[in-house]
Amino acid sequence: MFAFLLGLSWLVLTPVCIWLLFGRGHKGVRRATGALTLAALQAITMTVGFAQEPARVPAQTVAVRDPRADASRPADARPTPSPGVAAAATPFPAPGAPPACDSRVPDPQAVRLSFHGRVLHGLTVFWPASPAQCDTATVAVHQAGRRLRIWVQEGGDARQHEGAHNVPVRVEQGMASLSLRLGSVTRNHRRYVAINGHTGDKIPLRSRTS
């Protein structure tokens, strides 16, 4: 209600004060009355505004518990997390769960070429197996003359190169391997060179089989 009366006072008194201040022939007391009235209205308005300012909400604080303090407490006095939180914080897999696949780019140690007569028709790539060896890998082979550039990546079907295939991986005596039948690499060369497509390094060739 008071705010309404204050606004009404501004509406009524402002034109009067302006007339008293700037009216032709007004001097002395009239101008002073107009100026004092406007100043009083301004002071009252500011006082009411400050009085009605809403109280600020105190900032929320997060308590940080010192782990050294928990370590000094008896075991029965330490806070116990809820079962859901404890389960989410456990970094170990559930008992009986299969280990996660170690998706990676392996470093081939050898390549064995397969021929029909003098025509190359397939190859086998060998590399050291990991403890969490993936059971599939993506392989791509590009030929440039006698050079065979080979890309191998374990894990999901990451076909980043043209002609890539997802093939099974075998593990024997700590060595992983995959075999790929070639359809387009049929040109006959006396000596092929296998190259790691990821690093550009040469891969040693094992003895050929017919």
Order of helices and strands: HHHHEEEEEEEEE
Tell me the strand percentage band. Answer: 25-35%
Count the E strands: 9
Radius of gyration: 42 Å
Summarize the structure.
This protein is an alpha+beta fold and 210 residues long.
Write the layout of secondary structure elements.
Layout: H1 2-22, H2 29-51, H3 67-72, H4 83-89, E1 110-116, E2 119-128, E3 136-144, E4 147-154, E5 165-168, E6 170-172, E7 175-181, E8 193-196, E9 202-203
Parallel strand pairs: 4-8
Antiparallel strand pairs: 1-2, 2-7, 3-4, 3-5, 6-7, 8-9
Helix pairs in contact: 1-2
Descriptive account of the structure:
The protein is of the alpha+beta class and 210 residues long. 27% of the residues lie in helices and 26% in strands. The chain has four helices and nine strands, in the order H-H-H-H-E-E-E-E-E-E-E-E-E. The chain has a five-stranded mixed sheet, with no helix packed on it. A four-stranded antiparallel sheet has the order 1-2-7-6, with no helix packed on it. Helix 1 packs antiparallel against helix 2. It is rod-shaped, with a radius of gyration of 42 Å. The protein starts with a helix and ends in a 7-residue tail after the last strand. About 9% of the residues have low confidence.
